[in-house]
Amino acid sequence: MVDVLSEETEVAKASCKGRGRPRSEDVDHLILEAVLDVVAEVGITSVSMEGIAARAGVSKASIYRRFDSKDKLTVAAVEYMREQSPEIPTSGTAFERLHGLLDGLRASLPSSRYGRIMVNVLAASNENPALAKLVYERILIPRRARIRELIQEGIDSGEFPSNINIDVAMPILVGPMLYLGMWSMVDPVSETKTIDVLRAVLNPQHQ
Amino acid sequence: MVDVLSEETEVAKASCKGRGRPRSEDVDHLILEAVLDVVAEVGITSVSMEGIAARAGVSKASIYRRFDSKDKLTVAAVEYMREQSPEIPTSGTAFERLHGLLDGLRASLPSSRYGRIMVNVLAASNENPALAKLVYERILIPRRARIRELIQEGIDSGEFPSNINIDVAMPILVGPMLYLGMWSMVDPVSETKTIDVLRAVLNPQHQ
DNA sequence: GAATTACGATACGGTAGCGTTTCGTAATCT
DNA sequence: AGATTACGAAACGCTACCGTATCGTAATTC
Asked: What is the C-alpha end-to-end distance of chain A, expressed in Å?
């Protein structure tokens, strides 16, 4: 849960060190968490001020005091979201750790709040390209960076071939996880599939 | 545009060979096309009877005469959708044809009506799992079958290694296209990337 | 203690879409 | 010709959400 809500955020519209009652940070968090929940469950289109207020247990006035439009609200929610970092495996070989991370990604795609937000934002990217870009840069890119690090570790330790081009390896490693996870709510994937695929990609001789 | 509208569809609710004025097939098509357009552009949640009527240039009554709920309407639209088959390349090596098909898939992901419908249905899969399953089985599976055929052709002709397991090869070939295409509207992919990836997957010695 | 600001609750008129119904007209079957 | 059904257009009451405003109360600063 950490803390946060960066200083530069739009949130602080009028009440920067004012004299009266200060704004409740609890209310800030309640609102943004509610937005993230709704986006994950039913999509950005279905975010409504009234619905968020009801869900967060907060008055509409408290929302409008902070965000004067739905766009500002969703943008702030995404900025607030920063990195529900998945636990990065630390034990085992580079292959095992990479497998752990990637299989976690695959499994989280349809089920986790994180994964569902990504899909819903992607679906709305036509309507709201600015938000899509923001999510891509603030959420997806950092995630990918962690995978890159793990691949680099494997290369440095000699476990993976040294001539790997990471920019080519990324789609080859991550892509199959998207393929396997994306529709798994209607067509579940056997648990051994991920490792079969990773083995085929990283140890072609065993294919 | 073909023809179609299967006989078993829900559409024929009361007017199977009745006596009066027959239902216009033009109206059938106008309605379902409008639904597909709206789903592609703004998502299933945003499909409204009024919106469809206006867009199709049809009265609401004509819609309700055929579909008594929005669910029935969207399901019928998907069933009507059957396969806007992408042109399957016929010239060149198996690699070249596979590349053509897969690169077409990648490029169509964010831009084509087909690709946008898939993402929007996926995003709504929580709310409407039945529709998600229908789309998956009627649209996605047949598409994948065509890719499988192309891979099998390459194996049969000796161009691809004979020990390939197609169930493993599919995620490895298709997955990277998802990875590269999915966010390309906010982060365009260089055109040579697809072929780099395919080369790395199919000719590991050149990696 | 007085001024100031945030809070929850509640209410307002306005808009959009819902599902249904009624109308007059058009097309097809017997 | 007459019966029957589909068509577009329009109107119905209903609900949800919008953005705004007003209230009394709570929490801070001066």
From this structure: 43
